[in-house]
Amino acid sequence: MDIWMTALVIGLGMALTASIGAFSQSRAISGAVEAIARQPEAGGRIFTSLLLGLALIETLVLFTLFVNGVLLRTNLNDMIQAKYGKEVVESQKVSDAYEIEKKGKPEH
């Protein structure tokens, strides 16, 4: 799998995760507002539960971002190691890997 396919798959995965997270948050907020409208005296408990739920939804989205970053980094390391016989140094960035990919194998 080349770098562009990897970026496309990870980008689509993040877009899907963010969309589902946003939809879930909007449903949670809508439900909380309706519940508070029906029972204003329970507003404090509903609000606390809402914040906890929103934090868990957002944590899932951030965890997916982290996992996608790890997968991208691992895939780039594997591609460069297979093509050039070396691993990407920890200080290098994705843009450095792209430059290596663009320039071709260095002469030794």
Explain what you see.
With 108 residues, the chain is an all-alpha fold. The protein has a single domain (3-102), classed as F1F0 ATP synthase subunit C (F1FO ATP Synthase, Up-down Bundle), CATH 1.20.20. 81% of the residues lie in helices and 0% in strands. The chain is built from 3 helices and no strands. It has helices at 3-38, 43-84, 94-103. The chain is rod-shaped, with a radius of gyration of 22 Å. The two termini are 26 Å apart. 1% of the residues are buried.
For this entry, give a set of tags:
single chain, 108 residues, mainly alpha, F1FO ATP Synthase, 3 helices, 0% strand, rod-shaped
Major sheet: none
Distance between the termini: 26 Å
According to CATH, the fold-level topology is F1FO ATP Synthase
CATH superfamily: F1F0 ATP synthase subunit C
H and E string: HHH
Number of domains: 1
List the helices and strands and how they pair.
Elements (H helix, E strand, L loop, with lengths): L2 H36 L4 H42 L9 H10 L5
Helix pairs in contact: 1-2
Characterize this entry briefly:
This protein is an all-alpha fold and 108 residues long.
